[in-house]
Amino acid sequence: MNTKDFYLRVYEVVKQIPYGRATSYGAIAKVLGTPRSSRTVGYAMNAAHNNPDVPAHRVVNRNGVLTGKHHFAGTNLMQQLLESEGLVIEEDQIKNFKDIYWDPVEELGFQV
DNA sequence: CGTGTGACTAGGA
DNA sequence: ATCCTAGCCACAC
Fold first, then answer.
1. Nucleotide nearest to A4 (CA to C1')
2. Per CATH, the architecture of A3-106 is what?
3. How would residue A111 be classed by pLDDT, with cut points 50, 70 and 90?
């Protein structure tokens, strides 16, 4: 599999994250069979700006921290998008992240 | 081809 | 709980 295909698979998973939920880079790498590292998933998000269908704001790191917020327009767009979906953000971190966490491995149970 | 960087993570102190 | 380290891999020089 080449890198571009991997990116596309990442997008297919991210598109299936339900409204008001969020997941982590590592979880996405896992459901894809980790042919690459979780860093590469983040890199895929960086390249996802050409794909408006990809809700990149629903992907955070394993602690629920909005590590990618600086890659969005403005300084708090990512936080605003999440808050508009009913999430609570404090100090760049999602409150009750464990409750809203969406595990693609469990919820999908298959490889994209 | 080597090096540095980063939307990461798991494990140890 | 926090801090540090090693491993990770695509990309830009």
1. C10
2. Orthogonal Bundle (1.10)
3. low
Gap from A63 CA to C2 C1', in Å? 14
What nucleotides of chain C have any atom within 7 angstroms of a protein Cβ? 7-11
What is the pLDDT, as a whole number, of residue A32? 92
Which tens digits make up the pLDDT trace of A19-63? 999 999 999 999 998 778 999 999 999 999 989 999 999 999 999
Q: Residue by residue, what is the 3-state secondary structure of A40-100? A: HHHHHHHHHHHCCCCCHHHEECCCCECCCHHHCCCCCHHHHHHHHCCCCEECCEECCHHHH
Domain boundaries, chain A: 3-106
